[in-house]
Amino acid sequence: MKKPKIRELREAITSLFSRPFTTGFPFKPYAAPKRYRGKPEYNEDGCVGCGACFQVCPAKAIEMIDTVNNDGSGTRTLVHHPAECIFCGECERNCITKEGIKLSTKFDIAYFDEKDVTNSIQHKLLVCSDCGEIIGTEKHIIWTFRRVKNLGFAQPVMVSRLMEELEIRTDAEEKFTPPVQRTDMLKIVCPRCRRIAFISDEKKESR
Protein backbone atom coordinates (compact mmCIF):
# COMPACT_ATOMS: atom_id res chain seq x y z
CA MET A 1 0.00 0.00 0.00
CA LYS A 2 1.40 3.35 -1.07
CA LYS A 3 1.72 6.06 1.52
CA PRO A 4 -0.02 9.40 0.71
CA LYS A 5 2.21 12.14 -0.61
CA ILE A 6 2.84 15.31 1.37
CA ARG A 7 1.11 17.41 -1.31
CA GLU A 8 -2.04 15.29 -1.21
CA LEU A 9 -2.18 15.47 2.57
CA ARG A 10 -1.79 19.26 2.47
CA GLU A 11 -4.63 19.61 -0.08
CA ALA A 12 -6.89 17.32 1.96
CA ILE A 13 -6.33 19.30 5.17
CA THR A 14 -6.76 22.63 3.36
CA SER A 15 -10.05 21.60 1.75
CA LEU A 16 -11.31 20.30 5.08
CA PHE A 17 -11.14 23.76 6.69
CA SER A 18 -11.92 25.91 3.60
CA ARG A 19 -15.28 26.87 2.11
CA PRO A 20 -16.65 24.68 -0.72
CA PHE A 21 -16.06 25.70 -4.33
CA THR A 22 -19.69 25.07 -5.33
CA THR A 23 -22.83 26.79 -4.04
CA GLY A 24 -25.38 25.25 -1.72
CA PHE A 25 -28.13 25.32 -4.38
CA PRO A 26 -30.85 24.00 -4.26
CA PHE A 27 -30.71 23.77 -0.46
CA LYS A 28 -29.66 27.43 -0.27
CA PRO A 29 -30.85 30.22 -2.62
CA TYR A 30 -28.36 31.40 -5.20
CA ALA A 31 -28.28 34.93 -6.61
CA ALA A 32 -26.98 35.02 -10.18
CA PRO A 33 -24.77 37.94 -11.34
CA LYS A 34 -26.58 40.99 -12.78
CA ARG A 35 -25.34 40.32 -16.30
CA TYR A 36 -26.31 36.65 -16.19
CA ARG A 37 -28.24 35.63 -19.33
CA GLY A 38 -31.21 33.80 -17.84
CA LYS A 39 -34.80 33.21 -18.93
CA PRO A 40 -36.22 36.05 -21.11
CA GLU A 41 -39.42 37.62 -19.82
CA TYR A 42 -41.93 40.00 -21.41
CA ASN A 43 -42.73 43.36 -19.84
CA GLU A 44 -46.38 44.31 -20.30
CA ASP A 45 -45.66 48.05 -20.06
CA GLY A 46 -42.70 48.01 -22.45
CA CYS A 47 -43.80 45.49 -25.11
CA VAL A 48 -45.74 46.89 -28.09
CA GLY A 49 -46.17 43.58 -29.92
CA CYS A 50 -44.12 44.52 -32.99
CA GLY A 51 -42.82 40.96 -33.37
CA ALA A 52 -39.13 41.91 -33.68
CA CYS A 53 -38.17 39.34 -31.04
CA PHE A 54 -40.01 36.65 -33.01
CA GLN A 55 -38.22 37.59 -36.24
CA VAL A 56 -34.65 37.64 -34.87
CA CYS A 57 -34.79 34.58 -32.59
CA PRO A 58 -32.25 32.12 -34.09
CA ALA A 59 -33.61 29.16 -32.13
CA LYS A 60 -37.26 29.87 -33.05
CA ALA A 61 -38.06 29.86 -29.35
CA ILE A 62 -40.60 32.69 -29.73
CA GLU A 63 -43.95 32.00 -31.32
CA MET A 64 -46.22 34.73 -32.75
CA ILE A 65 -49.91 33.86 -33.09
CA ASP A 66 -52.26 36.29 -34.87
CA THR A 67 -55.98 35.61 -34.45
CA VAL A 68 -58.63 37.57 -36.38
CA ASN A 69 -62.28 37.16 -35.40
CA ASN A 70 -65.34 37.38 -37.65
CA ASP A 71 -66.30 40.78 -36.23
CA GLY A 72 -63.01 42.32 -37.44
CA SER A 73 -61.26 42.34 -34.06
CA GLY A 74 -58.01 40.49 -33.51
CA THR A 75 -55.29 39.63 -31.04
CA ARG A 76 -51.56 38.93 -31.31
CA THR A 77 -49.98 36.57 -28.80
CA LEU A 78 -46.21 36.28 -28.36
CA VAL A 79 -45.11 33.11 -26.58
CA HIS A 80 -41.59 32.33 -25.35
CA HIS A 81 -40.63 28.64 -25.02
CA PRO A 82 -37.65 28.23 -22.64
CA ALA A 83 -37.17 24.62 -23.73
CA GLU A 84 -35.98 25.83 -27.16
CA CYS A 85 -34.23 29.02 -26.02
CA ILE A 86 -30.42 29.29 -26.23
CA PHE A 87 -30.37 32.50 -24.11
CA CYS A 88 -28.42 34.44 -26.73
CA GLY A 89 -30.07 37.77 -25.89
CA GLU A 90 -30.98 38.69 -29.49
CA CYS A 91 -34.60 39.32 -28.49
CA GLU A 92 -33.55 41.93 -25.90
CA ARG A 93 -30.95 43.50 -28.19
CA ASN A 94 -33.41 43.97 -31.09
CA CYS A 95 -36.42 45.11 -29.06
CA ILE A 96 -37.54 48.45 -30.53
CA THR A 97 -38.58 49.86 -27.14
CA LYS A 98 -35.61 48.30 -25.26
CA GLU A 99 -38.09 47.41 -22.50
CA GLY A 100 -40.41 44.87 -24.13
CA ILE A 101 -38.43 41.72 -23.35
CA LYS A 102 -35.38 41.34 -21.14
CA LEU A 103 -33.15 38.53 -19.97
CA SER A 104 -33.77 37.82 -16.31
CA THR A 105 -31.44 36.15 -13.82
CA LYS A 106 -33.73 33.11 -13.52
CA PHE A 107 -31.70 29.98 -14.21
CA ASP A 108 -33.79 27.28 -12.54
CA ILE A 109 -36.34 26.42 -15.27
CA ALA A 110 -36.71 22.69 -14.68
CA TYR A 111 -40.31 21.60 -15.23
CA PHE A 112 -42.66 18.66 -15.69
CA ASP A 113 -45.04 20.63 -17.94
CA GLU A 114 -43.73 23.34 -20.28
CA LYS A 115 -46.77 25.50 -19.50
CA ASP A 116 -45.31 26.06 -16.03
CA VAL A 117 -42.39 28.07 -17.44
CA THR A 118 -43.85 29.45 -20.69
CA ASN A 119 -44.05 33.24 -20.78
CA SER A 120 -46.52 35.03 -23.06
CA ILE A 121 -48.07 38.44 -23.74
CA GLN A 122 -51.14 39.49 -25.72
CA HIS A 123 -51.95 42.62 -27.76
CA LYS A 124 -54.94 44.00 -29.63
CA LEU A 125 -54.56 43.95 -33.41
CA LEU A 126 -55.58 46.62 -35.91
CA VAL A 127 -57.24 44.96 -38.90
CA CYS A 128 -58.12 46.54 -42.25
CA SER A 129 -61.82 47.45 -42.26
CA ASP A 130 -62.15 46.44 -45.90
CA CYS A 131 -60.09 43.33 -46.69
CA GLY A 132 -59.30 42.09 -43.17
CA GLU A 133 -55.51 42.33 -43.62
CA ILE A 134 -53.49 42.67 -40.40
CA ILE A 135 -51.94 46.14 -40.09
CA GLY A 136 -50.22 45.79 -36.72
CA THR A 137 -50.89 46.01 -33.01
CA GLU A 138 -52.75 48.97 -31.59
CA LYS A 139 -49.99 49.61 -29.06
CA HIS A 140 -47.31 49.57 -31.78
CA ILE A 141 -49.19 52.22 -33.81
CA ILE A 142 -49.60 54.47 -30.76
CA TRP A 143 -45.90 54.03 -29.81
CA THR A 144 -44.82 54.96 -33.35
CA PHE A 145 -47.10 58.00 -33.36
CA ARG A 146 -45.51 59.27 -30.14
CA ARG A 147 -42.03 58.75 -31.61
CA VAL A 148 -42.63 60.67 -34.85
CA LYS A 149 -44.83 63.28 -33.08
CA ASN A 150 -46.34 65.82 -35.51
CA LEU A 151 -45.14 63.84 -38.55
CA GLY A 152 -47.64 61.17 -37.54
CA PHE A 153 -50.50 63.33 -38.82
CA ALA A 154 -49.31 62.53 -42.35
CA GLN A 155 -50.03 58.83 -41.78
CA PRO A 156 -53.79 58.03 -42.13
CA VAL A 157 -53.73 54.92 -39.90
CA MET A 158 -52.10 56.86 -37.06
CA VAL A 159 -54.59 59.72 -37.45
CA SER A 160 -57.53 57.31 -37.52
CA ARG A 161 -56.32 55.53 -34.39
CA LEU A 162 -55.77 58.85 -32.61
CA MET A 163 -59.30 59.96 -33.52
CA GLU A 164 -60.69 56.76 -32.01
CA GLU A 165 -58.66 57.30 -28.85
CA LEU A 166 -59.99 60.86 -28.54
CA GLU A 167 -63.51 59.63 -29.40
CA ILE A 168 -63.80 61.97 -32.39
CA ARG A 169 -66.67 60.81 -34.59
CA THR A 170 -66.81 61.47 -38.34
CA ASP A 171 -69.07 60.67 -41.27
CA ALA A 172 -66.44 58.14 -42.39
CA GLU A 173 -67.59 55.73 -39.69
CA GLU A 174 -70.23 54.36 -42.02
CA LYS A 175 -69.74 50.88 -43.41
CA PHE A 176 -67.82 50.25 -46.62
CA THR A 177 -69.77 50.28 -49.85
CA PRO A 178 -67.47 48.61 -52.36
CA PRO A 179 -65.39 49.74 -54.06
CA VAL A 180 -63.43 51.74 -51.50
CA GLN A 181 -64.03 55.48 -51.66
CA ARG A 182 -61.83 58.47 -50.89
CA THR A 183 -63.73 59.09 -47.65
CA ASP A 184 -62.47 55.72 -46.45
CA MET A 185 -59.06 57.32 -45.86
CA LEU A 186 -60.23 58.16 -42.35
CA LYS A 187 -60.77 54.48 -41.53
CA ILE A 188 -58.33 51.81 -40.41
CA VAL A 189 -57.33 50.37 -43.78
CA CYS A 190 -54.22 48.59 -45.04
CA PRO A 191 -51.81 50.21 -47.58
CA ARG A 192 -53.26 48.10 -50.41
CA CYS A 193 -56.86 49.25 -49.85
CA ARG A 194 -55.71 52.84 -49.42
CA ARG A 195 -53.90 52.70 -52.77
CA ILE A 196 -57.04 51.29 -54.43
CA ALA A 197 -59.06 54.17 -52.97
CA PHE A 198 -56.64 56.78 -54.33
CA ILE A 199 -56.50 55.18 -57.79
CA SER A 200 -60.31 54.85 -58.06
CA ASP A 201 -60.73 58.48 -56.99
CA GLU A 202 -58.20 59.67 -59.58
CA LYS A 203 -60.02 57.72 -62.30
CA LYS A 204 -63.25 59.50 -61.43
CA GLU A 205 -61.57 62.92 -61.64
CA SER A 206 -59.94 62.09 -65.00
CA ARG A 207 -63.37 61.34 -66.51
Describe this structure in words.
With 207 residues, the chain is α+β, with helices and mostly antiparallel strands. It folds into two domains: 34-127, Alpha-Beta Plaits; 129-207, no CATH class. It is 28% helix and 16% strand. The chain contains six helices and six strands. The strands form two sheets. The chain has a four-stranded antiparallel β-sheet. A hairpin with a 6-residue loop joins strand 5 and strand 6. Helix 4 (138-148) packs across helix 5. The model has no long low-confidence stretch (mean pLDDT 79).
> How many strands in all?
6
| Uncertain segments | none
CATH architecture of the largest domain: 2-Layer Sandwich
CATH class of the largest domain: Alpha Beta
Please tally the helical runs, counting DSSP H or I stretches of 4 or more residues: 6
What is the total domain count?
A: 2
Helix and strand content put the structural class at alpha+beta
The average pLDDT value, as a whole number, equals 79
Distance from N terminus to C terminus (CA atoms, Å) equals 110 Å
Sequence of strands across the biggest β-sheet: 2-3-5-6
Helix content: 25-40%
- Using the alpha-carbon principal axes, give the shape: elongated
Order of helices and strands: HEHEEHEEEHHH
β-strand percent reads 15-25%
Radius of gyration: 27 Å
Largest sheet: 4 strands, antiparallel
What's the CATH topology label of the largest domain?
Alpha-Beta Plaits
